[in-house]
Queue: 2 jobs
Job 1
Amino acid sequence: MKIGFIGLGHMGNPMARNLLKHGHTLKVFDVVPDLLKRLTDQGCAAATSARDCASGVELVITMLPSSPHVKRVYTAEHGVLDGVGKGVPLIDCSTIDPHTARDVAMDAKAKGNPMVDAPVSGGTGGAEAGTLTFMVGGSVEDFERAKPILQCMGKNIVHCGDAGNGQVAKICNNMMLAIEMIATAEGMALAAKLGMDPRIFASIANTSSGRCWSSDTYNPYPGVLENVPSARGYSGGFGSDLMLKDLTLVTEAAKAARQPVVLGGMAQQLYQMHSAMGNGALDFSSIIKLYKKD
Ligand code: NAD
């Protein structure tokens, strides 16, 4: 297929390369010229704007920072909807708020273009390896059309319901993850402070009711597990600022829906504090730094 790909950052670049590997032809666009060049060096055609990127292609994919970028790239003058042919499907893989996802999908539909939201989990490692999970919001027909393309970049492609529901799945899951990580950090740090070997405590928790993904697969206490960010100074992994972004999206969505998210709100504030202390680039398990000295 001839695909227009917009947003060639940490995730977009490897995702676009996986599409190339599967034999697709790409026209690409990013506001940062260096990022554009990295892909034109691989044989992609360069576009001069989002509109240009969307014109003359059979499918458009976007991977942008957040809601305002998505709104602008699709609906502003010189945007995707200005240039794309009627009926051409649109896939937005960015993590944004569900309301914006629904608004943009409605604008696209009004122009005659089916659109799905398809945020991902799996991080840059999953993007490189082509093993991302895609959480897709849109009609069954639009999901089925997007699936073979998403399979070039990911392993699990899950239909979450109507437009916006991919975003709902993504941000609610990450809210649960953040709360669980903070709980694990709090329990691990307290057990150590009260005199227990953190490795023994983790082995107890992991065979008891305290067990969760953050305790048994991604433990934040250094020395408990190998090959996780806590074993290498919290480098790599999923950045605290990215977790903060998702927590901010989820708490704002909850506010608009007048739905309480008591622990989610506290998690958002704790990650905001952690980020303000200069830890935004560290993996999100570094939140344990709020509870223990290095
Ligand atoms: P990034 O900042 O590295 O990439 C975004 C790219 O979009 C940048 O290169 C930027 O220049 C480009 N861009 C911004 N405005 C633009 C515009 N108007 N026109 C064209 N290009 C524009 O971000 P990323 O890490 O690749 O993340 C992308 C999305 O994926 C985000 O929504 C993020 O929350 C989500 N996500 C990231 C990860 C991760 O581990 N990095 C994991 C899961 C989900």
Job 2
Amino acid sequence: MTSSLPQHERPEGAAKPRKIRDGVFWIGAVHWERRLFDALIPLPDGTSYNAYLVRGSEKTALIDAVDPDLADVLMGQLDRVDTVDYLVSQHAEQDHSGAIPQVLARYPSAKVVANPKAKGMLMDLLAVPEEAFITVEDGETLSLGDKTLEFVYTPWVHWPETMSVYLREDKVLFSCDLFGSHIASTDLFATDEVRVYEAAKRYYAEIMMPFRSVVEKDLAKLAPYDIALIAPSHGPVYPRPSFIVDAYNEWVSGPPKNVVVLPYISMHGSTKLLVDRLTASLVEKGVTVELFDLAVVDIGKLAMALVDAGTIVIGTPTVLVGPHPNVAYAALLANLLRPKVRFLSVIGSYGWRTKAVQTLADLTANLKVEVLDPVFARGLPAAADYDALDQLATRIAALHKENGFA
Ligand code: FEO
């Protein structure tokens, strides 16, 4: 996607700004080939970095830049834009700010509009000079003539400096990473809501879930706004805002579901026997189970399952007295993502000695869970182990019912 040609030698007719409202254009870049974010998060469907151009009767604002890898795509679209007066930075992370230096080089009189926290970060991360900034407070407005930008602080979606921008006259909310989805597509709008729901849920799980309590406050803060269009920083624009807002309210605040997420590894088959028995026993009692073999897992899928799960059961063999390293990794990940899961247990196997339960308990210390009795088999599971698994399933089903997980 990235052109190796210098700007002035690129052919005409590459990406063009795309209108989303009169005077409002998507001017971002679609990264079809990207398969990993932060050297951690799988991107099975690529992603996009959405920048938006807002032309008022007197001034023009660019909302966000793009990832530096695709800076030439943004700059090519700006070939058609004579003036940028303001470069609004909603978020200092480089996938939205990385091309700011190139934009400033093209429009040296443009001012970077950011909140004070973002200003400091942009100076640290990109060496944007202090004199380039105008800082804005929460609720402050900026007139572009016949269009007005209102800055709404929405912290921790998912950095401390993140803010949204509300375009009053057109009722467009530029929502930063909030409501985003990693999808590479030529579809500007979220017309295939089934596809976007899955991608947005995955994105929420990986990026927003650790800050659930603050995101809940951000959603409450945005609730009174009359919003006709949500324009996030990744993925398609939402012409039906209630679709994604309702989904977020459910993910953030809804009760856990009658679901057990069961990530596991089995080396010689004993742990898998336990996993299969517990799964069958839970299913028999009306509990949905989602299994993840950690030898082949897409961690994004695992994160997504954790959004709604009532219980996590971790399955592990014993490796050098501890859990399998892949299991430790998954436990650490769950601990970082802090889902609303309420119960946790560990099942597994060992040859002569194990400290796997204690290690996994330490690795999941952030989770506000009730820990249920573990079931560990020495070698192949015996009848007593299967009985213990059935009891664990009975306990989980009862707890889900008592707590109203449906
Ligand atoms: Fe899409 Fe937090 O950057």
